[in-house]
Amino acid sequence: xxxxxxxxxxxxxxxxxxxxxxxxxxxxxxxxxxxxxxxxxxxxxxxxxxxxxxxxxxxxxxxxxxxxxxxxxxxxxxxxxxxxxxxxxxxxxxxxxxxxxxxxxxxxxxxxxxxxxxxxxxxxxxxxxxxxxxxxxxxxxxxxxxxxxxxxxxxxxxxxxxxxxxxxxxxxxxxxxxxxxxxxxxxxxxxxxxxxxxxxxxxxxxxxxxxxxxxxxxxxxxxxxxxxxxxxxxxxxxxxxxxxxxxxxxxxxxxxxxxxxxxxxxxxxxxxxxxxxxxxxxxxxxxxxxxxxxxxxxxxxxxxxxxxxxxxxxxxxxxxxxxxxxxxxxxxxxxxxxxxxxxxxxxxxxxxxxxxxxxxxxxxxxxxxxxxxxxxxxxxxxxxxxxxxxxxxxxxxxxxxxxxxxxxxxxxxxxxxxxxxxxxxxxxxxxxxxxxxxxxxxxxxxxxxxxxxxxxxxxxxxxxxxxxxxxxxxxxxxxxxxxxxxxxxxxxxxxxxxxxxxxxxxxxxxxxxx
Length: 514
Fold this sequence. Notes:
Layout: H1 3-22, H2 29-40, H3 48-57, H4 69-72, H5 76-80, E1 83-84, E2 99-103, E3 114-119, E4 122-125, E5 133-134, H6 138-147, E6 152-161, E7 164-172, E8 176-179, E9 189-191, E10 194-195, E11 207-214, E12 223-230, E13 234-243, E14 249-258, E15 265-272, E16 274-276, E17 291-292, E18 296-300, E19 306-310, E20 318-325, E21 329-333, E22 355-359, E23 365-372, E24 383-389, E25 399-406, E26 419-427, E27 434-441, E28 453-458, E29 462-470, E30 476-483, E31 490-498, E32 501-502, E33 506-511
Parallel strand pairs: 3-11, 19-33
Antiparallel strand pairs: 1-5, 2-6, 3-4, 6-7, 7-8, 8-9, 9-15, 10-15, 11-12, 12-13, 13-14, 14-25, 15-24, 16-17, 18-19, 18-21, 20-23, 21-22, 22-25, 23-24, 26-27, 27-30, 28-31, 29-30, 31-32, 31-33
Helix pairs in contact: 1-2, 1-3
């Protein structure tokens, strides 16, 4: 086929798609897109999803198809009994190292989406039959087969041992996804895009409504797939390249096409749970030492400063914005890595992954935003972190971004640079003044307390005293006593320095009335 023919075919596809979308009333948009992309462009290319997202952005949002009421009314236990049949997994029995299994729609997952496989440049929608899902009743199997829609999918790969395909990545619900590195259990999640988090007008939840998964070569240890994001005010084309391993990584590239002006978007959005631990004690007695999927927000800002912000389960909604330009990285981190840090024998919180975002290129001016939502139970994801660009996204102007998302056990720090291992608080003995205690580990070898200068400040009130003492090999315990002078909140900043340079993370914390 000549380049002129390809151009004509592409223009015909876009014209046909626009005409079809203009008259859509009942058919799900995803099905229309699938039909058009198959009939007009037999070859799936790197531009296919971008073309669809751009064309779709020029028309009003049409919600995806709602699944039948029968599935929505399933209770939690019955829904949990629906499992994908491993024998029906995509590429099961082939030589490729990856297989795909589907999630059934129903209960909380109200929208049905389409998943395609791409082989030799040709996209084919995944077809379900009555044997695709193991269900508590044949009527449910028949219903799911007739629906031929899914709530999401998961990828399997021999991560921990060569002979067993572990679940490594899961996409399910809105634009949520999560992944695992070797030896980890699921914990926090990521999102393709966040819109208007914690705004009084309410949050908008974009969704991935169609996926195209490329079949990897037999010996390949990575897999590529694409996703179409859609929402009331924006569409988007996403490209994922996944490399499972000791530290699993996802390379993400995306182009957003706003339908209307977007003042508040979250790029590299992460969602986690923090119930109690560290400075934040439980409100009611609990036999465990801590309960959380993440215990801190870590930032490497554009100036090269390493920041550690312990998480909190506040009494009222708290939003913190860390102003920056061209950030080098940020993430939600699960730093406590021993079971004794939690004393929970079932949840295995010490095996939950961290997530670290490394921007591709320069992201310009904006904010790393941390949202802490009050939660009365550990089943709620009450922590959100993301990058918010300073400039609004304008309709008619594509917005491109990229980042690498890794799932390590901790945030990256230079060798011999102190990391905050633990934070706690109390009242200084024989006074009524609050005291914060910070334990640093992995400081430069041979560092002595007398060689360390502690810089400390509070946004309201005054610092009364700082003190440091040895705490194990290359460790240091820092005490900071302060007076809030009755302020409703106080921003605390503590950093260890030696010879005029930082030797550890800058600990930031928002002190709220107890």
